[in-house]
Specification:
Blueprint: H1 2-16, E1 18-19, H2 21-28, H3 32-44, E2 49-52, E3 58-61, H4 74-88, H5 92-104, H6 107-117, E4 120-123, H7 137-147, E5 149-156, E6 162-175, E7 178-185, E8 192-197, E9 201-210, H8 219-234, E10 237-243, H9 248-255, E11 259-264, E12 270-276, H10 279-286, E13 293-296, H11 299-316
Parallel strand pairs: 4-6
Antiparallel strand pairs: 1-3, 2-3, 5-6, 5-9, 6-7, 7-8, 10-12, 10-13, 11-12
Helix pairs in contact: 1-3, 1-4, 2-3, 4-5, 4-6, 6-7, 10-11
C-alpha cells in the first residue's frame, strides 16, 4: 500500500538524514523508479523533501527532521495527512500508521492533522464513462474541510439552473477522478446533509466563519450510504452480454461498477452482467458494439437494440 511506503520513506529519511532511491528500494523491497516517485509525491504534497546531487547525494528532509516528526510545520503535517488519509480509508495498516504519526506530532498540530486525514475518501469504481478532470475548487474545499470554514457558492443542477448555497464542508470523495463534496447545507433548522458534485460549483468563496462538524459524522460511512442509494437507482434493469473474453475488460470499463463477470459460455465467450436505470440506457451503451456482442436474458434490451438499429438503418441506408 502506497501510504505505508510514504510513511516508511519519511521515517527512514528522518532516521538516517540522507537516503538514496536505491537504499529505499532495497529497504522497502520496491523498484528504484517507485522510490523516486514516492520522493516526488512527498515533495509535491509540501513535505520538505529535496534531492541533493553529486557524490554522496540523495534525498534529504529539510531542517534535520527528527523521528518524532517535530521537524514538520503545521502546514507540512496537514499536507502529509492529506496525502496519506485516502489510503487509510481502505487499508487497516495505513490506519495504524496514521494513528502512530498523530501521536508523534506536537499536540498543537494533531487536530488539524487528523482533520486532514479524514477530509477525503477515494472510490476508484466509475459511474459510467466520462471525461475526467480535477476541478480547481478541490484544493480550496480541502482547506475548508480541514480548517472547518463555511463555504458559499452557486450550485448548478443538471438543467444548468444555479442556486446559492451556504455549506459546511464535512468531507470530499474522489470517485474515479470525479469529485463530490459532502456537507451540511444551511437553511431553516439544522444543516441538511447533501452530496454535491464539485464540477457544478461556481464562484466558490471560503468564509472566515467556522463550524463544528457533527460528532457522529463518519465520511466513509456517509459515502457508503450515498453509493448504495445511487446504485439502487442505476441498477433497475440488467442484462447478460456475451463477448469475446479479450474485449470483456472494455465492457467492464464502459459500465464501471455496474458490470460483473458471469463465467464463460460453452463456446468460450465471456458472460458479463450489466445494469442501468432502464433497458434503453443499456441499449444505447451497447449499440456501438454491433455484432461483437450478443445480449441474452433481457427481451427489453434486445427490443431497444432492434429499434435503435432500425432507426439507424432507415436514416443511413
Amino acid at each position: 500500500m502506497r501510504a505505508d511506503r510514504l510513511v516508511a520513506t519519511l521515517l527512514l529519511m528522518q532516521a538516517r538524514g540522507r537516503v538514496t532511491a536505491a537504499e529505499v528500494a532495497a529497504e522497502l523491497e520496491i523498484s528504484v523508479a517507485t522510490a523516486r516517485r514516492d520522493f516526488e509525491a512527498l515533495s509535491v504534497a509540501g513535505i520538505p523533501v529535496y534531492p541533493q546531487s553529486g557524490r554522496g547525494g540523495g534525498w534529504m528532509l529539510l531542517g534535520e527532521g527528527r523521528t518524532d516528526l517535530s521537524g514538520l510545520s503545521s502546514s507540512e503535517a496537514q499536507a502529509l495527512f492529506l496525502l496519506l488519509g485516502p489510503a487509510a480509508s481502505v487499508a487497516p495498516d495505513a490506519q495504524s500508521a496514521l494513528r502512530k504519526l498523530v501521536r508523534a506530532l506536537p499536540a498543537s498540530f494533531r487536530s488539524d492533522a487528523e482533520a486532514a486525514a479524514e477530509a477525503i475518501i477515494v472510490d476508484p469504481a466509475a459511474w459510467g464513462d466520462r471525461e475526467r478532470s480535477r476541478p480547481d475548487a478541490v484544493e480550496r474545499l480541502q482547506s475548508a474541510v480541514v480548517s472547518r470554514r463555511v463555504a458559499e457558492f452557486y450550485y448548478a443542477n443538471r438543467a444548468g439552473e444555479a442556486s446559492t448555497l451556504i455549506v459546511e464542508p464535512w468531507g470530499l470523495a474522489d470517485k474515479d477522478d470525479v469529485w463530490y463534496l459532502i456537507g451540511g447545507v444551511r437553511g431553516d433548522g439544522e444543516p441538511a446533509t447533501r452530496t454535491l458534485r464539485v464540477d457544478r460549483i461556481r464562484e466558490l468563496r471560503i468564509t472566515d466563519e467556522r463550524f463544528e462538524r457533527p460528532a457522529n459524522f463518519d465520511l466513509a460511512a456517509e459515502w457508503s450510504k450515498v453509493v448504495a442509494l445511487v446504485e439502487s437507482r442505476r441498477s433497475l434493469v440488467d442484462a447478460v452480454v456475451l463477448v469475446d473474453p479479450a474485449l470483456a475488460f472494455v465492457l467492464h470499463d464502459q459500465f464501471g461498477r455496474h458490470s460483473a463477470a458471469d463465467g464463460l459460455t460453452p463456446d468460450g465467450r465471456a458472460r458479463v452482467r450489466v445494469s442501468a436505470p432502464s433497458a434503453l440506457t443499456i441499449a444505447q451503451q451497447l449499440a456501438g458494439w454491433g455484432d461483437a456482442i450478443d445480449v441474452v436474458d433481457s427481451d427489453a434490451v434486445r427490443a431497444e437494440l432492434a429499434r435503435i438499429g432500425a432507426e439507424l438503418a432507415a436514416r443511413y441506408r
